[in-house]
Amino acid sequence: MIKILDYGMGNCGSIKNMLRYLGTDAEIVNQPVSLEGAKGIILPGVGSYDHGIKHLEPFKAVLEEKVLNEQIPFLGICLGMQLLLEKSEEGQLPGLSWIEGEVKRFDFSALSGNEHLVVPHMGWNEVRPTNSPALLQPVEQDQQDRFYFVHSFHADSVPSENQMAVSHYGYDFTCAIHDKNIYGVQFHPEKSHKFGKQLFKRFIELL
Prior knowledge:
Elements lengths: L1 E4 L7 H9 L4 E4 L10 E4 L5 H8 L3 H10 L4 E4 L1 H4 L4 E2 L13 E4 L15 E9 L15 E7 L1 E4 L6 E7 L1 E9 L2 E4 L7 H13 L2
Parallel strand pairs: 1-2, 1-3, 3-4, 4-12, 5-6
Antiparallel strand pairs: 6-9, 7-8, 7-10, 10-11, 11-12
């Protein structure tokens, strides 16, 4: 069963509904002990970095056991992806540091011709896979997949081997990361229709 972690920072219901649509058992859990028996874990998240890491603190020990030691598949979404990194410009607290890198706010000050770009970056955008990632196989071979984004900060300084995909908003930025059994995406697959269904289907196949 896939456990969706409800730590007070995201809408878990739409993720559960999509997983059930795909024929997979999924449960929303809000206690560390409830992660026992998980075959996969999804960490959604919306909100500020420090607030997220504080709310995640009670779950850290069991998450490290399940994800780092037992190596069960793990997927972080939006803030849930950012918390996988080492730190963020948005806050003062350290992240989980499961993947090297940091989180930075969109900054268009050094670019010309981007005066109409606003933050947060909101809406549909193309995602270009790198390193042949397991989760991002295209729905249609002749077209780029598109996902729905809502964010003001993005991953930065991620080693190339841990970059799963990039997108473009003023400049290219890392929008998906991975390391072994750990995956993170900045966009919202649960709001991305057929493209999101494909990503969740690929995650299910990892279990």
